[in-house]
Amino acid sequence: MRSSEIAFVVPAYNENTVLEQTLLPLIAIGEVVVVDDGSALPICLSETTLDKIYYLRHLINRGQGASLETGFSYIRENMRQVNYVVTFDADGQHNAQDVAGMLEKARSGYEVVLGSRFLTNKNKIPFLKRVVLRTFAAIYSAVNRKKITDRHFGLRILSRTFLEHNSLVMSGYEHADEIVDLALKGNWKYCEYPCTVNYTEYSQSKGQPLINGLNTLFNRMLSKL
Amino acid sequence: MKTIQYLLFILCIVPIAIMRLGSNASGKATYRIGFLIFVGSFLSAVAYPNSVMRLANSLGVGRGTDLVVYFTTFALICFSLIMIQKFARIERELTELVRRNAIENVRLPNSGN
Question: What whole-number distance in Å separates Cα of residue B112 and Cα of residue B23?
Fold first, then answer.
């Protein structure tokens, strides 16, 4: 059932044909806003798909957080009917089937529904990635005294009310932490939802290397000053 | 502890103050005054080499060179912070500009172009 109160924001940067396969199931669920973050390559979409989506293009590359916020701004200003915004990675690592369950949670009153790849044991996550992500999540949970198993998963649902009150400032990959922080600090009603993840060679090559966590940490510290 | 150590610790407040100072008129004026003091102390150190040594000794630093190194490093840290801040602001403005452009030039569904 397609619903116009749901909008997907899909940040895309130099994506190949995987993008089209990622978008097709989303178009069947709701509106799709693709934000092309200044890709060097022309967007890899057929005319029919392009005619079913909102397509925004950054003139120059500004980072994933900036792309998401561009999608959010567009929805805030021009898509009044949208009540639930779903962030979805373009590289095909998320499953559209998970969205239905998350929407149910959102509709029952959760302003922020965070996908978590660690709440289900179906996922095969590379060892090092798992250790690093879980360690950071554990440290943050201990510091904030609120348990979050996965802070850096791209699939999440944000309610319109949440987005009317919050906007992303960090332009790079820091946005994942930023969203969690905004949800916790503003005392928004949030929950986690178990999500499956498909790590393909393609999505692995597109994803951020773990070492980027250091850059992220440094940028976040500077932004606090 | 020697006088210089107290002084350098007290000077640590300056970077924090820099972070708090915005890009408003008083902030800019403060940076310019800081810059003039920096240039002024450089010129007087060149003109009166012994004054640096005397100042160093009075602060409990053995050599004038050490004092110069301390203050140069300190000035460098302040300068870096100001630049980091300025770049961050420009980056934010640039992002906003790119965002506005993207929103204005959106390709809507069924637009067929």
Answer: 45
Rounded-to-10 torsion of CA A47, A81, A23, B106: 50
Q: Domain-by-domain residue ranges, chain A?
A: 3-224
- pTM of the full predicted structure? 0.85
Decide if domain A3-224 falls under CATH 3.40.190.10.
no
Contact A66 B102 (CB under 8 A): no
**Domain boundaries, position B80:** 3-104
Please judge whether B102 and A35 are an interchain contact, meaning their C-beta atoms are less than 8 angstroms apart.
yes
The answer to whether residue B112 sits within a structural domain is no
- Among B85, B101, B107, the residue with its CB nearest the CB of A59 is B101
**B46 in a domain, yes or no?**
yes
Number of A/B CB contacts below 8 angstroms equals: 64
CB A52 within 8 A of CB A10: no
- Domain total in chain B: 1
Query: Which among A4, A11, A166 is positioned nearest to A84, based on CA atoms?
Result: A4
Q: What is the pLDDT of residues B50-66, one digit of tens each?
A: 888 898 888 888 888 88
pLDDT bucket at A52, cuts 50 / 70 / 90: very high
